[in-house]
Amino acid sequence: MLINRNVLTLDEFTIQEMRAFPSATGELSSLLRDLGLAAKRVNVEVNKAGLVDILGDFGTTNVQGEEVKKLDIYANNQFMGVLKHGISCAGIASEELDDIVIFDDEVSNNSKYICMFDPLDGSGNIDVGISIGTIFCIYKRVSELGKPCTAADFLQPGNRQVAAGYVIYGSSTMFVYATKRSVNGFTLDQAVGEFSLSHPDIKCPTDGKIYSVNHGNFFRYEENVRNYINTCQRKDKTNGGPYTQRYIGSMVADVHRNLIKGGIFAYPGTIDRPKGKLRLLYECNPFAFITEIAGGRATDGKQRILDIQPTELHQRTPFFVGSKNMMDELDTFIRK
Ligand code: P6P
What we know:
By secondary structure, the chain is of the alpha+beta class. The chain has two domains: 10-199, Fructose-1,6-Bisphosphatase, subunit A, domain 1 (Fructose-1,6-Bisphosphatase, Chain A, domain 1, 2-Layer Sandwich); 210-334, D-Maltodextrin-Binding Protein, domain 2. Helix content is 30%, strand content 21%. It has an eight-stranded mixed sheet, with helices on both faces. Strands 10-9-11-13-12 form a five-stranded mixed sheet, sandwiched between helices.
């Protein structure tokens, strides 16, 4: 019997990947499926966001008498809920929560992974219809199995990630995740309600002509960064250009576009905020992992993002990520 294996769903793909490792327990596949379920639920609400006037403003009670939660709180609860009630995660950290959440029940304490996420990054863009996203990463625990997970499980360098990914809620909704083997993208088929493999084995183009930076901060960047940005503006056909400047102000959308088309995204430190704005653990590390597996690079301007030893859960870092050759050229400016 001919079985159509051409269009794999996320669940079928994660199970197929697991079959490639006979020793695999299926916990990672199960965790990724849990994240996919939460993403589908968040997608429904994000798509309704434009109907706030009809459904009731967030923080109020809607016409059905239900409390309307802010979307990022709703998203946080969806991702935390599927992981808490799954079989693969001992605890989580979230951009929305001050501290880690240790699930501390028998099944969770025997689970070998922890997960960190930004449940709805760029949520300020919702009311103007701009793409937003969820960012996540998965680590093996360093704490003792059978006991509750600990803070040490969450302060591992990004090079210890087992998997990382994001969901982009845009013109289409995509679930993209990386393991050390490859990066794969799944587009939500609304008719079936499944994420289907649409972008197998994503590779970040070695070169690109898109640079993404907030020019509003230009005169607050350090001189070497300003010199690089000026060079981007001076590119033409004679020196690998011309470049185009694209900045959506939604990290998932900007980095996703560059991952597919090639380009560089930068959120440098500024005079008033030398560590920049973006969070190391659940924004920069996941995208650094994904981009490196796809053939690109990611630094804080001086070192590889994945080699940074975290000290605090919500610490920030300057962030440069993208096509290898563009990152190499950036190095010639800011590592002087
Ligand atoms: P700015 C959204 O608020 C976010 O955290 C990222 O998604 C985005 O890349 C960045 O901030 C935009 O920040 O300061 O340029 O508006």
